[in-house]
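Dear colleagues,

As part of the handover before I leave the project, I'm documenting each prediction I ran so the next person doesn't have to rerun anything. This entry is a single chain, and its sequence is reproduced below.
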Amino acid sequence: MQRHEYKVVPAPRRGTKSREAKTTEDRFALTLSTLMNELGRDGWEYLRAETLPCEERAGFTKTRIVEQTMLVFRRPLSGSAALAATLSDHPAAPKAIAAEAPAPRLGPAVEPPPGAAPTIGKAE
């Protein structure tokens, strides 16, 4: 099973000005494709857009709910990162690793020499 890491970025709200893009739709599409190409060069694959509710302050004591549009990207984890994610997801992994560690070597049990039992607290 392939593991992925995810990146979520806010969707652009307006297009950037450009000589090639004359209309609002063209500017917005250019801005969006520029963002996607920049992230794609770093290995991020566009997955989907989500519109989610978000609470924000409205004045001194009030809040309101606004919707935020986010773009979701993912890319495969590298070998060591995937292994670390696999181990951290498995609840028995730390126990299994600890159980495989060698136990400390103990010497033979030795009985105390016969005689009077030691006393604690009083000096003679």
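DSSP finds three helices and three strands in the chain. The longest helix spans residues 24-41.

All the best with the project,
I.
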